[in-house]
Each structure stands twice: as C-alpha cells, then as structure tokens.
C-alpha cells in the first residue's frame, strides 16, 4: 500500500522511509535512535492539508494520519518537506524562518535527521 498522495509530491518520501524501515536491523536502530512518534502535517500549493506519521516508538512503521499520541508534530509545506528530505533544506533554518512549526517535544524532532538521511539513500529523491 502506497503512502503517496499525488496532490503532495513529497509524500513519496514516506514510502522511501517505510522501505528504509523494512530491514529489521535498520528498524531496530531507528527505534532506538528516534524513540518517538513523529507526525507530519503537510500543506500543498493548493492549500490542502494531509498528514502522515512515523512510529519510531513501538512498531517502526510509517502510516497515514497523525498516528497514536504523536510525541512531536511537524507542520510545513509539501515543497519544504520535499527539500528537507532531499537534503536541500535545513530543518533548523526552516524552523527559524517560520516555515516549519513544531508542536510537542522539540528535542525529539532533532532525532529525525538520520531517518530522513536513510530515506534519501533509498529513494534518491
């Protein structure tokens, strides 16, 4: 089942993250590093919003919706998320410029970087 939504081009990254977590060793490592449920609210150019989550607390899975009790929720545009996953944008700069909003445990948001990097190598977005 694909997590991609055609109205949100960068949502293909969630499939890449899911693929990166399909390896049992990588999954265990990601859960150990992340130890949180990361929720994403993306807004596309048309002003529509959709959400996904990465559970790195219990299951090591990626899914649609905000997930169960997200530890941290990141809200940003589809384009900025695409740039972030591709390594073309810096999360700290996006946050400081107001393009990335974080609700919940801000420090946990910093644990997401290695997981996004893993997706980059899998997908070559």
TrEMBL record:
Gene Ontology annotations for the cellular component aspect, listed alphabetically: cytosol
InterPro entries xrefs: SCP2_sterol-bd_dom, SCP2_sterol-bd_dom_sf
Gene3D superfamilies per UniProt: SCP2 sterol-binding domain
Domain SCP2 positions: 17-117
Name by which UniProt lists this protein: SCP2 sterol-binding domain-containing protein
Organism of provenance: Apodospora peruviana
The organism's taxonomic lineage, starting at the top: Eukaryota, Fungi, Dikarya, Ascomycota, Pezizomycotina
